[in-house]
């Protein structure tokens, strides 16, 4: 009986991931073969070094930090994300480093200058896959690529955070450069939707429900028809089925997120 218990304990231990303890994120992670593993991301990954996190199809790949943390935890590694990173970018081989991405440090390398002379090569954001009209741009959908300066669109985004979460205005082809004019904030209200409009002034909030007369993204003006009075309310969309009117509307156009959770 004792021997059987010992054997069961040994088998149970073997089935668990080897705990390597706390690990540190490599400042500027790269991979050489398109397979991004925990060993490419963390110092001291030990036996978990070959655990696959994801694959890189272009010059870079972007992972959500929470996704990486979950894979690491499942392999027995402990990463507390002390910097509070939102995203992590991994580049090919010895490509120019960009490091772990957060909302503050996901910008294109300073060496990339869109205004470079004709014939020069610059680094711009490109689409890693084709997107249909209305699709939302995810972190893995954009990568930094090197193109000739004349192929870089005017006003090209210098930060991946500028485009992640936006939706495509039209069909976009894989490999093409990202242009702000091709993207828009995701639609939150459709024409004929019933919308709750909040009128805020002096700490007082009044609400009325009406019908939207046009489509709108967060921060866009949306006229709402009050079905009882027949009057149209000039409002600003802030979230699905929600809009604000009155003095708060102007602030909502600049920052709709501050009203979205109310």
From TrEMBL:
The keyword Signal applies. Its main location: periplasm. Keywords: Cell projection, Cilium, Flagellum, Periplasm, Signal. It comes from the Bacteria. Residues 1-20 form the signal peptide. It is found in: Periplasm. InterPro entries: Flagellar_FlgA, SAF, SAF_FlgA. It holds the Pfam family ChapFlgA. Residues 122-184 form the SAF domain. PANTHER family: FLAGELLA BASAL BODY P-RING FORMATION PROTEIN FLGA. This is Flagella basal body P-ring formation protein FlgA. The lineage of its organism: Bacteria, Pseudomonadati, Pseudomonadota, Alphaproteobacteria, Caulobacterales.
């Amino acid at each position: 009986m004792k021997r059987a218990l010992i054997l069961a304990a040994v088998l149970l231990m073997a089935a668990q991931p080897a705990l390597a303890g706390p690990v540190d994120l490599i400042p500027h992670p790269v991979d050489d073969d398109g397979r991004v593993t925990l060993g490419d991301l963390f110092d001291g990954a030990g036996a978990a070094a070959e655990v696959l996190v994801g694959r890189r199809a272009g010059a870079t790949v972007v992972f959500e930090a929470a996704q990486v943390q979950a894979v690491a935890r499942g392999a027995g590694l402990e990463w507390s994300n002390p910097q509070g990173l939102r995203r992590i970018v991994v580049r090919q081989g010895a490509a120019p480093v960009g490091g772990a991405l957060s909302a503050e440090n996901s910008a294109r390398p300073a060496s990339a200058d869109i205004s470079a002379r004709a014939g020069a090569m610059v680094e711009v954001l490109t689409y890693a896959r084709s997107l249909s009209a209305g699709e939302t741009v995810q972190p893995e959908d954009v990568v930094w690529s090197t193109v000739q300066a004349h192929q870089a669109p005017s006003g090209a985004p210098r930060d991946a955070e500028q485009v992640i979460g936006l939706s495509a205005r039209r069909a976009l082809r894989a490999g093409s450069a990202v242009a702000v004019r091709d993207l828009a904030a995701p639609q939150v209200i459709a024409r004929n939707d019933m919308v709750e409009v909040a009128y805020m002034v002096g700490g007082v909030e009044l609400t009325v429900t009406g019908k939207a007369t046009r489509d709108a993204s967060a921060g866009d003006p949306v006229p709402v028809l009050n079905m009882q009075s027949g009057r149209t309310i000039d409002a600003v969309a802030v979230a699905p089925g929600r809009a604000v009117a009155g003095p708060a509307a102007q602030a909502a156009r600049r920052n709709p997120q501050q009203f979205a959770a109310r």
